[in-house]
Amino acid sequence: MDDNQMFPVDNEDDDVVVTLSLDDGSEVTCEILTIFDVDDQDYIVLLPLDANGEPNQDGEVYIYRYFEDETGAPSLDNIDNDDEYAAVSKRFDEICEEDFGE
């Protein structure tokens, strides 16, 4: 297997969701689509949900660096580097193509 591992999140029939606090003070609930690795860094892809808990209609996703601290608590970090974001986005597109076709 290559070094770009993917860790699909599947909690039986229940979707795993997280609530993000945004810079403007608002909160958004997101479904965790997947966690995968690029160049020894984990990334998480989140799908924002609407007020009814349904996926947003425009297909927008949030991608963050993902890590766990020494206690195992998950943390997210913004991707500020354009090249890093491009590489991670490309890998996510490949994952989507592998799993869902086009």
What would you say this structure looks like, in words?
- The chain has 102 residues and is of the alpha+beta class.
- It has one domain (6-100).
- Helices cover 19% and strands 38% of the residues.
- The protein is built from one helix and six strands, in the order ββββββα.
- Strand 2 (17-21) and strand 3 form a beta hairpin.
- The radius of gyration is 14 Å and the shape is globular.
- The protein starts with 5 loop residues before the first strand and ends with a helix.
- The model is unreliable at 1-13 (pLDDT under 50).
What would the keywords be for this entry?
six-stranded antiparallel beta sheet, alpha+beta, globular, single chain, 102 residues
Report how far the terminal alpha carbons are from each other: 23 Å
Structural class: alpha+beta
User: Which band does the percent of strand residues land in?
Assistant: 35-45%
What integer is the average pLDDT?
83
Q: Round the Cα radius of gyration to an integer and report it.
A: 14 Å
In DSSP terms, counting alpha (H) and pi (I) runs of 4 or more, how many helices? 1
- As a percent range, the share of helical residues equals 10-25%
Please tell me what the overall shape is.
globular
Q: How would you spell out the order of helices and strands? A: EEEEEEH
How many domain modules? 1
- Biggest sheet details: 6 strands, antiparallel
Runs in which pLDDT lies below 50 for 5 or more consecutive residues are 1-13
The number of distinct β-strands equals 6
